[in-house]
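Query structure, 312 tokens:
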């Protein structure tokens, strides 16, 4: 079955994001000798003629993830029913209203999203009490019988990290890094502006933000997609000492100011900020080619949620 890739324009909490990497490592170490419970996996045997349920798709995915189940995870169903028969699957970063509407057009009733659906890490629908937007979005999902499952912690725990691998593969940098290593050693020295332009073009980003000298020479790049948090970003930068730190997003009063002062003190380090959604989207795009051979009876389509911002 031919994979479909579709890009669309885009029209804390219980488990702090910046602690996630450390928690995953601990979980993998603590459970590396355990097997996924037989009872939980028993419903992965099915007849193709009977179709496949949301839960069966989830079970197939989790069989490939080390250390499952995690004691604490945000990777739960956010809307819909695990028993629903799947008519089609959509992968995306954020389950935006636009993504939901496109899924309906594709007759896809199962959305696998990397990030929250209801605007906070735990997807607490009462985080903002009485939110009309939350209620209307949930009503839209229910109207079309769509189930949303978040695939965040487990996808990062996959080896290789599903998001990181998708990004380096799309950027053409997969041959310049080792498994489990976020450091990219470029084959030749590039100027900072060339690194930024390469990432813009290869990842399909409208614009990036930079702290540093555009003519600075860059050979060692520390790539940290998404939002790992200022403390983690700075710890890794101190340890690796890259020429360029490439991230999804930052708190501007943390990492951005750290890089500015580091440069003023004579350290050769710059910052490239890609944007959260676009920095991890390739990982959810790669999920299509990873998952489709395992589930041949339904079509899996990637719909990019894209950045919510416009450049003026």
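Result returned for the query:
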């Amino acid at each position: 079955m031919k994979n479909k890739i579709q890009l669309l324009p885009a029209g804390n909490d219980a488990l702090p994001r910046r602690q996630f990497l450390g928690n995953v490592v601990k979980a993998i170490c603590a459970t590396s000798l355990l097997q996924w419970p037989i009872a939980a996996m028993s419903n992965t045997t099915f007849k193709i003629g009977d179709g496949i349920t949301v839960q069966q798709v989830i079970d197939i995915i989790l069989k490939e993830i080390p250390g499952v189940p995690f004691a604490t995870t945000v990777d739960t169903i956010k809307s819909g029913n695990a028993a629903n028969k799947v008519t089609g699957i959509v992968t995306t970063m954020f389950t935006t209203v636009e993504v939901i509407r496109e899924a309906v057009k594709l007759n896809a009733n199962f959305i696998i999203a990397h990030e929250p659906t209801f605007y906070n890490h735990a997807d607490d629908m009462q985080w903002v009490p009485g939110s009309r937007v939350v209620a209307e979005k949930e009503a839209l999902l229910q109207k079309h019988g769509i189930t949303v499952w978040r695939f965040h912690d487990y996808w990062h725990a996959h080896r290789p990290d599903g998001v990181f691998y998708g990004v380096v593969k799309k950027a053409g940098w997969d041959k310049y890094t080792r498994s489990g290593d976020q450091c990219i050693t470029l084959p030749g020295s590039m100027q900072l502006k060339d690194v930024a332009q390469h990432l813009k073009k290869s990842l399909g980003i409208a614009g990036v933000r930079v702290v540093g000298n555009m003519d600075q020479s860059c050979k060692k790049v520390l790539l940290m997609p998404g939002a790992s948090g200022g403390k983690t970003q700075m710890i890794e930068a101190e340890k690796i000492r890259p020429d360029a730190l490439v991230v999804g997003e930052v708190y501007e009063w943390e990492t951005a100011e750290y890089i500015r002062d580091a440069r003023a003190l004579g350290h050769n380090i710059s910052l490239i900020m890609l944007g959260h959604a676009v920095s991890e989207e390739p990982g959810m795009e790669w999920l299509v080619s990873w998952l489709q051979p395992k589930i041949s009876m339904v079509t899996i389509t990637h719909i990019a949620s894209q950045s919510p911002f416009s450049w003026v």
